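F.,

This is the one I mentioned.
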């Protein structure tokens, strides 16, 4: 039997600031979004302030049954070319691996193409992130580049893959 849940993507707000700080310092989240450095609370607060000042990024909170479980974002938006970089993480470990990230991505991609009128969405990920790579391919992303030894993580250099999805 499938669980029944209601998912909403809501604008980033101060109410989730503490949660985001916890999530962004989670080892698995950092590994998935190619981040090494732990973030202090002051750095997190500064990042939040900048999110509201910068028109070239959109961050949404993934809410399931009124509970925040992660973040999905379009960053480095070029409004002339209509291109931006996708980023997602499910911060709450208990909500990983059950399809919620897939559903959030489908909703956000639709929003990016239909509401923001984006031409293309791209992303970068570690080549060793096989599960995410399969998900992105299933959603229509194609590999566009490989950057060898481009990121240092867990005591070794890893290759970084760039994938893209164009509006149909």
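My design for it:
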């Amino acid at each position: 039997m499938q669980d029944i849940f209601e998912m909403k993507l809501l604008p980033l707000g101060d109410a989730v600031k503490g949660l985001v700080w916890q999530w962004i310092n989670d080892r698995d989240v950092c590994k998935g979004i190619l981040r090494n450095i732990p973030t202090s609370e002051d750095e997190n607060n500064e990042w939040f302030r900048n999110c509201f000042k910068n028109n070239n990024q959109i961050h949404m909170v993934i809410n399931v049954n009124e509970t925040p479980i992660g973040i999905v974002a379009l960053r480095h938006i070029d409004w002339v070319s209509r291109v931006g970089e996708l980023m997602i993480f499910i911060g709450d470990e208990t909500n990983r691996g059950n399809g919620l990230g897939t559903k959030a991505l489908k909703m956000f991609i639709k929003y990016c193409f239909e509401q923001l009128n984006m031409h293309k969405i791209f992303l970068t990920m570690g080549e060793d992130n096989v599960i995410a790579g399969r998900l992105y391919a299933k959603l229509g992303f194609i590999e566009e580049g490989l950057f060898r030894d481009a990121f240092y993580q867990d005591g070794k250099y890893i290759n970084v893959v760039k994938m893209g999805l164009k509006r149909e």
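Residues 37 and 71 are 18 Å apart (CA to CA).

Talk soon.
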